[in-house]
Amino acid sequence: NPFYDPDMKHKTGADSDVYEYVMGDPTADRFFSNVSDIIECTFEPFIDKGKTGIVVGIGCTGGRHRSVAFALRLHRHLTQAGIKTELAHRDIAKPQQ
After folding, report:
1. For residue 86, what is the DSSP state?
2. Reported pTM
3. Nearest to 89 by CA among 20, 29, 19, 12
């Protein structure tokens, strides 16, 4: 958790060093693959039912490091796949405890 690293604590998952730290975890690729597979498999049934949007929430303890990095990665992944996305980080500006 980057929160416990004094050099990263006051940064966010959008900062390249924090992003790389999070994605460098041995389980990061597997987690991302599982999450993106689940999200992608919902698109077709939703579209078939006339739905126009899906809201995806990714959370972590403080909402500034890991969740931001994974949300950013998912946003990039879906955008590259031609899926229109909007990215918002709900807790990124909240004070740290």
Report:
1. -
2. 0.90
3. 12
